[in-house]
Amino acid sequence: MTTSTRGARTQAAPAVLVLEDGRIFRGRSYGAVGETFGEAVFSTGMTGYQETLTDPSYHRQVVVMTAPHVGNTGVNDEDPESGQIWVAGYVVRDPARVPSNWRAKRTLDEELANQGVVGISGVDTRALTRHLRERGAMRVGIFSGEKVADDAALLARVKEAPQMKGANLSAEVATKEAYVVPAIGTKKFTVAAVDLGIKGMTPHRMAERGIEVHVLPATATVEDVYAVNPDGVFFSNGPGDPATADGPVAVMQAVLERRTPLFGICFGNQILGRALGFGTYKLKYGHRGINQPVQDRTTGKVEVTAHNHGFAVDAPLDKVSDTPFGRAEVSHVCLNDQVVEGLQLLDQPAFSVQYHPEAAAGPHDAAYLFDRFVSLMEAERA
Ligand SMILES: NC(=O)CC[C@H](N)C(=O)O
Questions:
Q1: pTM (2 decimals)?
Q2: Is the CB of 58 inside a 6 Å radius of any atom of ligand 1?
């Protein structure tokens, strides 16, 4: 096990990060010693590393932090978004030598080591991020220890690792058993939430609004969804390529058929896109962080929002589309690059966003979307 003292870190084993295009960064082992593979992506969040590490949507991704200092507040038991760290690897520049926070129980270095997550520190993460912005997200390996193979052998192994495009991963991270998150205060509604890799804060944001949330496995059928007698149906965030999510797309289409109020976040937005007949595609390097400007096209208002997506929906920005479920339009757009960030149906109560209104971590500008879901269920009941 490694510790976070200066002395221990200078003794940490050497580590090397090898990108599939042959670019190499050297540093020191951070967290577990060993090797790992994944898709190299970067996050621009300056805070919220615990939420990032435990977000199941990061499954099979090696996350590069652009913030130069990571681990400053250590690790607490309150902030995780799921029961474990999901990132495949972690890349930081300068780890905190003396973490300090009243809630801290352990150092981040210890937590990564305890959970067997291989990381690397001492990397010029800004140079690495610029590289990924120019060349795009790509496969990567991190190798640490006193003896690792030569660079050419490591590169060959990276090139054998699986690609993110075409990866079907929800069932690997989602709950195997259904469970209930009770409403906080008086129960007003029941929601069936299809778990494709759900973050803990999402049902909590619903529970705060009087919703009893029945979280169902990724493989839930239409019968499973309606067995809980839901006022609304929710489709969560999750890892992998939405082009592989045929099962959830079919379930969502059945929900749209019945006109039950529907809300989706991130992967859930991509599934709504597919359910309506739009395509999805891989972004060059994706959106990850907690400071992305999104415009709500209905009100014109701009929100600062939390993102974690590598794919996006291909829907026209400039017109209302006719779909098998009535008229649909792009409700939200990212102002950095005009990527589709939300969809809404005009003839029935269904909408979704590509970003993260649950805001864990991130700004709370988009919390109104949970209220909008409640309004749809209220209108349906009335
Ligand atoms: N956070 C998410 O739901 C991510 C969705 C999808 N895996 C993507 O990368 O775009």
A1: 0.96
A2: no
